[in-house]
Design a protein that fits this description.
Layout: H1 13-16, H2 29-36, E1 52-56, H3 64-71, E2 77-84, E3 91-99, H4 102-111, E4 116-117, E5 120-121, E6 123-126, H5 172-175, H6 180-195, H7 197-277
Antiparallel strand pairs: 1-3, 1-6, 2-3, 4-5
Length: 278
């Protein structure tokens, strides 16, 4: 704990993926990819790394002229490079600014950080690629900072420093619950395990519990059988009533048909009688 620092002095991808730098195994694939990466700084990059600032979170519409205008307020600029896509030529949202003097670098890092340019809040820090040992860029799973939405935050930098880890030493009293009674109970339990009495008690307990469960299930099944028996009896009682109702309906239909036949016969007889009279 004496050599703890909120900012990483040596870049370790495993520690960078942990909020307090205490992880012992990677929690996502990006951390694992950064651990196995063999990244070497680009030798084509020119300039003094100790006098270079990294400027991120730029507005895509921000130009080199605008950056030169803003950062020239803190000192004389030797070199400024806005990183653009090789194919489209669009800005990637970050740049590098190299000053002529060290005091200009310190001043710009302090005052230009969180400065709003073209409606975007800037992030300004020292260049890490050539100054921080073991550095792995973001595209290989490393880097620093990040957004919560991505789920791949990296700690140990200016934007997201390490949180101090909490180390609580575990004593025997805490382990046994903080009292001598718990230790005594633990010793008694251990002795009972040795002589086999505790295991027999548990077997007895489980056996009695199993018998109780069987009895409860038997009662539930008996109640369920009684319920279905009552429903069946009620359905049997309703069947004669349904038969009587159907018989009545058949009788009423038969009577109605007979009445119609009689009326039709009477009507035909009246018709023939009237014709004979003529």
């Amino acid at each position: 704990m004496n050599d703890w620092s909120p900012v990483a002095k040596v870049y370790d991808p495993l520690k960078a993926g942990s909020i307090d730098g205490t992880d012992v195994e990677p929690h996502d694939r990006a951390v694992w990819r950064a651990m196995v990466a063999r990244y070497k700084p680009n030798k084509a990059v020119v300039g003094d790394p100790l006098l270079t600032l990294f400027v991120a979170r730029l507005n895509p519409q921000t130009t080199e002229e605008k950056l030169n205008e803003v950062f020239s307020n803190y000192g004389d600029i030797r070199r400024l490079r806005l990183v653009r896509d090789l194919v489209t030529g669009f800005s990637k949202g970050y740049a590098f600014v190299e000053y002529k003097e060290e005091r200009s670098v310190v001043r710009a890092r302090r005052d230009a950080n969180k400065l709003v340019v073209d409606q975007s809040e800037l992030f300004v820090d020292f260049e890490q690629e050539r100054t921080l040992k073991g550095w792995v860029p973001r595209r290989l799973g490393g880097g620093q900072g990040g957004k919560k939405e991505s789920g791949q935050l990296r700690f140990g930098g200016k934007d997201r420093p390490f949180r101090k880890p909490i180390n609580l030493p575990v004593t025997m009293n805490q382990e046994w619950g903080g009292g001598s009674r718990e230790c005594e109970r633990g010793g008694e339990r251990e002795e009972r395990y040795r002589d086999g009495s505790l295991s027999r008690e548990r077997e007895t307990d489980w056996g009695s519990r199993g018998r109780r469960d069987d009895r409860d299930r038997g009662r539930e099944r008996g109640v369920e059988r009684e319920y279905h028996r009552e429903r069946r009896d009620r359905s049997y009682e309703r069947e004669p009533t349904r038969e009587r109702e159907s018989t009545r309906e058949r009788e009423s239909t038969r009577e109605r048909d007979d009445r119609r036949e009689r009326d039709d016969r009477r009507h035909r007889d009246d018709k023939y009688r009237h014709r004979d009279r003529r």
